Amino acid sequence: MRFLCVYKAAEGGPPSPQMIEGMGKLIGEMTAAGVLLGTEGCLPSALGARVRRANGKVTVTDGPFTETKEVIGGFALINVKSKDEAIEWTRRFLDVAGDGESEVRQLNEG
């Protein structure tokens, strides 16, 4: 079962050296366990854009997105045996990342 885990940081800003070190160790463990398919951090929302379609009209809004209370900090794509296992790996990630939340979504395999 594949899951997309989207991390929403409580605060923006670059990761600390301790967080980078902890992430490196966790990524190594996930790779060794064969569950990590891919992971990346996101650049600040100031460099992004939102594309919306409503009533047939498309609008593009450049960042930053100041109205956003949570900033998407990155994602991981994992392959595990169950939702519970996906949640456990995500819990371990949050132990390293600190405050914030991760949305865990199973991907459609059909």
Model description:
This protein is α+β, with helices and mostly antiparallel strands and 110 residues long. The protein has a single domain, classed as Dimeric alpha+beta barrel (Alpha-Beta Plaits). It is built from two helices and six strands; from the N terminus they run βαββββαβ. The strands form two sheets. It has a four-stranded antiparallel sheet, covered by helices on one side. It has a two-stranded antiparallel ribbon with strand order 3-4. A hairpin with a 2-residue loop joins strand 3 and strand 4. Helix 1 runs antiparallel to helix 2. The longest helix is centred in the first third of the chain and has 16 residues. The protein is globular, with a radius of gyration of 16 Å. It starts with a strand and ends with a strand. The relative contact order is 0.34. The mean pLDDT is 91.
